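Ticket reopened. Same input as before:
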Amino acid sequence: MNELYLNKLRENNFKLTPKRKAIIDFFLKKDRYLTPETVWRGLKKKFIQLGLPSIYRNLELFSKCGILAKIQRPDRKLYYGLCHSKKNNHHHHIICIKCGKVGEFSDCDLLKKKTINGFKITNHSLQIEGICLKCR
Amino acid sequence: MNELYLNKLRENNFKLTPKRKAIIDFFLKKDRYLTPETVWRGLKKKFIQLGLPSIYRNLELFSKCGILAKIQRPDRKLYYGLCHSKKNNHHHHIICIKCGKVGEFSDCDLLKKKTINGFKITNHSLQIEGICLKCR
DNA sequence: CTGCCTGCAAATAATTTGCAAAGTA
DNA sequence: TACTTTGCAAATTATTTGCAGGCAG
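Engineering reply: fixed in the latest deploy. New output:
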């Protein structure tokens, strides 16, 4: 069911091109976080012509629509994973270090804190790594 | 007082070269997180010859010694800030979005959680942004 | 039809590596 | 002296940009 994600594109007045649909399907199928390059390699089989820059542009676009989430990794490269949360509630992502599955974490109590050590908090990002149920 | 940091180098059997000392002093003087390039520009005045690769290598080394902490930013570039914590206790860093000052945050209660959504947590990283006392 | 999307080629720019020379302990 | 550390030049490689043609609405 990618309708949920396609609607996010519609809501934002972006065109539903075959390649955009395929990117979303690819994330649904893989069920893990991916690099632009991986998405590109995976979809090249399906499309005679497919430019890596388009993938970069679309993944970035998707992350702005709330379809994808950027995943932070120590190597400081670009990673994206499907963002499953329906609403725009505050949440973070947890990734499985074995299979790459992306989960969500909503009970972040950092929002309750207003200041830390004299700093007035304006925002924060949290990246959690772990091992998912299947991989244990 | 950079003795604290120099000792960390000694403990790890790294040589105390003038450039290494200068890098640490530079961080002490600036009191903010910096890019390798900024450190390099700042120290070139002092040293006739100074290679950017040496800065990269030393900053990475320092972060392994616990002298510097890597700072995560949305632009996914390398940033380092002095790590003030004396012991190796679990902590995170908070940066001032105005002046770049680096603070610390130790009351992280994520360590208490063992699992989230079925994921067994193996580690996590948290980056907090805010406005420091001086900048308010 | 109109403006957004895309491919291709090329640019950008940060970071890394190899190696010989210099410096520390 | 022996082993690190460093500078320089060059490589690497991810990501971005410009532009002409293609396609969705």
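The CA atoms of residues 91 and 107 of chain B lie 8 Å apart. The radius of gyration of chain B is 16 Å. Please confirm and we'll close it.
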